[in-house]
Amino acid sequence: MSADLDDAPESFTSESSESFTSSTPREIVTAPGAATGRRKQAIARVRIVPGSGQWVVNGRPLDQYFPNKVHQQLVNEPFMTLGAENRFDIIARIHGGGVSGQAGALRLAIARALNAIDTDGNRPSLKRAGFLTRDPRAKERKKYGLKKARKAPQYSKR
Q1: How many whole angstroms separate alpha carbon 29 and alpha carbon 84?
Q2: What is residue 13's predicted lDDT score, i.e. its pLDDT?
Q3: Cα separation of 3 and 146, whole Å?
Q4: Rounded to whole angstroms, how far apart are CA atoms 95 and 101?
Q5: pLDDT tens across 58-81, in order?
Q6: Do the domain assignments include residue 145?
Q7: What is the mean pLDDT of the chain?
Q8: The whole model's pTM is what?
Q9: Which CATH number is 63's domain given?
Q10: How far is CA 82 from CA 6, 7, 37, 109, 112, in A?
Q11: Among residues 62, 61, 33, which one has the least CA distance to residue 49?
C-alpha cells in the first residue's frame, strides 16, 4: 500500500484544454472583427477592435458581468492561446441562457472573430485548443411517463 503512495504524482493538472502557444513568436494581426457564438440557450455577438484590452459586456466591464474568475478566465482563453492579451477591445452583447452558457458562447464568438481577422495565422492554434468547435450539448427533452428527461417514477413491486 505504501509503495502505491510513493508512486503518486506530486502535482496534478486540470482536465481543461491547455493553452497552446505557438513555438515561434509571430506578429499578431490587429484588425477589427465580429462574430456570433452560441452555447446552450445563450447567444453572444462580439465586436473586437484593436485597443488596450477593455471589455464591455452588455454595457458593463467584464469583472462586473462575470464576477466568477473561472468565467473570466474561460472567455480570455482564445487571447491567451494566441498571445494577444490586451491587444483588442471587446464589445459584446449576450442574451439567453445562464452564466456558464453565456461565458461559453462569448468564448466561441471571440475565437471566431479572431479566426476571421487572420485565418492563416490564428486558425491552427485556435482549432488545436478546441475553441472553434461549437459545443452541441443541450438540455434533453422531458418524455411522457417520466418525471424528467430520464428520471422514472418510483417503482413499487407490490
Answers
A1: 9
A2: 54
A3: 49
A4: 10
A5: 999 999 999 999 999 999 999 999
A6: no
A7: 86
A8: 0.79
A9: 3.30.230.10
A10: 38, 36, 19, 15, 13
A11: 33
Contacts of 84 (CB under 8 A, 6+ apart): 28, 114
Neighbours of 5 (CB within 10 A): 7
Cα→Cα distances 51→32, 48, 135, 139, Å: 10, 9, 29, 38
Residue 73 has, within 13 A of its CA and on its CB side, a CA count of 7
Q: What angle is formed at CA 94 by the lines to CA 88 and CA 72, rounded to 5 degrees? A: 55
Domain carrying residue 45? 28-129
Q: Are 99 and 68 in contact (CB under 8 A)?
A: yes
The residue whose grid cell reads 490586451 is: 86
